[in-house]
Structure to design on (699 residues):
């Protein structure tokens, strides 16, 4: 920012106490240090934090705000706006099930019922054993080969109830 | 096959749709089984040919011709090798020469000319297939002449709004500012569309070339590709291509010795449909909530970080190199009316032969659904088709003869949008589809304007009451009134177009909104 900038920037000095572990804290600080120079750095930083920690912990928000010289409200506002950023720790695997029209045309509503019943959770829920979190997604770009879902960023097409059960068995490993 | 010792070229797509059907396992099986049998194989991971119902579609090159086999699962590989498919022998999964398959042969592939043909990781392969000829032509032109070529070609924004690309570019060129940007909208959120994904995964260089030409045309030195997180394979492909282009001097401070600079980076979205709207995309790139901006000012004058910005869809940019290479007249020659060139249509949902079909504007919906799509996958009659994504109208059988043309679709209160066609068979419940349209709007609304933020939730409630037969005639009046408020009162297309699927479902399929037992009182 040049001196002519009409906005006065007042650095926020006070850091709030947090319950992050030292590893988590280090991961957040590393993401901020690597990326904060980018124009519009907040989304890249949040992606890096989620990649390292599987979610964006509530206690990471003030730290990110401090590092990027943003208000906590601004960071919280962004984290909560985007569906992809998880604010709670997910299960060991995340299943993104497509709810969009092209998959509906191939029976995704029935598949959705099966998935929820089999996992025993609704959307945004995590199975009691901590293995799987179920998230909705609105189009995976696999619309000719639906119903589709993604398990940990791995796309699967033409998913039937049986195929879902087989995929879950493989994801969860031997009981 | 003159040299028996030369390895057999086998192509297995790395396109996400192919991977979703097991292409990686198929590729591994081919390598393992071929090694067992002492057959030397050169495995190439290409993009998809777009015949998606045949994925994983394996191609074998025999005497310079690529032969298609598909769908090939890993467990099919031993039998294929036993049948001699590496020498092009027949097998039940064989389809003959890929480019002679009618689905492929009948297309007019301009933008998708290389997708599925080349190795998307290889700049040399791109150059060997007419790559970077558009940039070469552009480097010899003045910026205003590049813009004029794009204008003359008649290219309209392929993201959905169909605004003439040349006019947008001209505005940015005319804006006096030392810093300008080129932004690619790769937030392809419309259900039923995947052409951006296929192009970025199958031919990332053509997008990079198109954006570089845009940079030269308007005087921008930095570009961003805003990519949705749901496309991790596209991210890998783009970043590899950007690195290769940079290393060969096609990006950077001195493009091909011209003294012109252009750099490019990929930024990831985070699951917000609204970020496909250009102003909310810009907000998101700036690190903010993806909330829609008021227009004016136009992004062309005050866009990213307040600077003049060209923002176009993937297919728009990717159509530019061929226009510069072959000339505006060549491109303009395709199409009908004011819809010039070709549109990559995406056949999706309940269709037997789903995939990508690039054709000139003008073919009817019926022709593309039956001649290319092969009718429904379930074998039941197709009852409704949604064209143009979740904000597109549901069309009944009586409108299947509408030609694929921006104006013709507008005339039947529909929209062509980004070219997605989602077919539903006769088991579809259109009231449920209308309800979903409102629910989707409620989930994805950015919340800035009231009609969209609140109207969508009220819409779900009203449809529930209407279908329950709770004073149905009155509910229908309220629903139509609410849709009018959304149409005319919303800031952007999300709220403004959500009434399209809702009202078209209500108008064309009123019987689905009537509770069977109370049909007499509800048939308003």
């Amino acid at each position: 920012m040049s001196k002519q900038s009409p906005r006065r920037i007042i650095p926020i000095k006070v850091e709030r106490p947090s319950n992050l572990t030292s590893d988590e804290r280090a991961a957040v600080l590393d993401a901020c240090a690597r990326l904060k120079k980018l124009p519009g750095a907040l989304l890249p930083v949040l992606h890096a934090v989620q990649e390292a920690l599987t979610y964006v912990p509530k206690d990471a928000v003030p730290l990110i705000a401090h590092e990027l010289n943003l208000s906590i409200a601004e960071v919280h506002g962004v984290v909560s706006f985007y569906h992809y950023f998880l604010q709670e720790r997910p299960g060991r695997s995340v299943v993104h099930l497509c709810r969009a029209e092209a998959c509906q045309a191939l029976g995704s509503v029935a598949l959705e019922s099966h998935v929820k019943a089999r996992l025993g959770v609704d959307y945004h829920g995590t199975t009691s054993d901590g293995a799987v979190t179920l998230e909705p997604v609105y189009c995976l770009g696999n619309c000719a080969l639906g119903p589709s879902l993604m398990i940990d960023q791995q796309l699967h097409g033409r998913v039937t109830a049986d195929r879902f059960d087989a995929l879950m068995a493989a994801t969860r490993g031997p009981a | 096959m003159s040299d028996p010792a030369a390895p057999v070229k086998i192509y297995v797509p790395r396109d996400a749709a192919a991977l979703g059907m097991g292409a990686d396992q198929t590729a591994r099986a081919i390598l393992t089984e071929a090694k067992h049998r002492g057959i030397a194989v050169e495995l190439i991971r290409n993009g998809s040919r777009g015949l998606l119902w045949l994925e994983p579609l394996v191609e074998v090159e025999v005497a310079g011709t690529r032969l298609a086999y598909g769908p090939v699962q890993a467990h099919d590989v031993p039998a294929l090798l036993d049948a001699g498919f590496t020498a092009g022998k027949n097998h039940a999964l064989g389809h003959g020469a890929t480019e002679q398959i009618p689905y492929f042969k009948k297309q007019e592939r301009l933008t998708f000319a290389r997708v599925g043909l080349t190795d998307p990781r290889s700049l040399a392969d791109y150059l060997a297939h007419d790559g970077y000829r558009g940039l070469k032509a552009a480097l010899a032109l003045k910026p205003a002449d590049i813009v004029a070529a794009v204008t003359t070609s008649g290219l309209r924004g392929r993201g959905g709004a169909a605004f003439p690309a040349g006019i947008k570019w001209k505005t940015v060129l005319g804006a006096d500012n030392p810093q300008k940007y080129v932004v690619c909208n790769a937030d392809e959120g419309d259900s039923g569309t995947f052409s951006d994904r296929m192009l970025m995964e199958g031919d990332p260089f053509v997008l990079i070339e198109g954006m570089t030409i845009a940079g030269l045309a308007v005087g921008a030195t930095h570009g961003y590709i805003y990519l949705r997180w749901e496309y991790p394979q596209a991210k890998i492909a783009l970043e590899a291509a950007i690195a290769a282009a940079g290393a060969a001097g096609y990006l950077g401070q001195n493009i091909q010795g011209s003294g012109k600079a252009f750099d490019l980076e990929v930024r990831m979205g985070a699951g917000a449909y609204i970020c496909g709207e250009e102003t909310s995309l810009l907000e998101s790139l700036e690190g903010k909530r993806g909330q829609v901006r008021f227009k004016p000012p136009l992004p062309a004058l005050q866009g990213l970080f307040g600077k003049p910005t060209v923002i176009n869809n993937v297919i728009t940019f990717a159509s530019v190199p061929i226009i510069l290479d072959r000339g505006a007249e060549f491109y303009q020659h395709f199409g009908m009316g004011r819809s010039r060139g070709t549109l990559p249509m995406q056949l999706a949902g309940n269709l037997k032969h789903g995939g990508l079909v690039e054709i000139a504007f003008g073919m009817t919906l019926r022709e593309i659904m039956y001649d290319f799509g092969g009718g429904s996958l379930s074998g039941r009659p197709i009852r409704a088709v949604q064209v143009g994504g979740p904000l597109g109208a549901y069309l009944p059988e009586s409108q299947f003869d509408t030609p694929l043309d921006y104006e013709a679709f507008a005339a039947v209160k529909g929209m062509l949008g980004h070219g997605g066609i989602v077919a539903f068979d006769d088991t579809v419940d259109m009231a449920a589809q209308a309800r979903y349209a409102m629910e989707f709007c409620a989930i994805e609304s950015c919340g800035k304007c009231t009609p969209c933020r609140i109207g969508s939730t009220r819409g779900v409630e009203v449809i529930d009451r209407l279908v329950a037969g709770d004073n149905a005639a009155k509910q229908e009046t309220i629903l139509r009134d609410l849709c009018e408020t959304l149409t005319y009162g919303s800031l952007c297309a999300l709220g403004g177009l959500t009434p399209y699927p809702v009202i078209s479902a209500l108008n064309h399929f009123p019987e689905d909104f009537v509770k069977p037992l109370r049909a007499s009182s509800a048939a308003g």
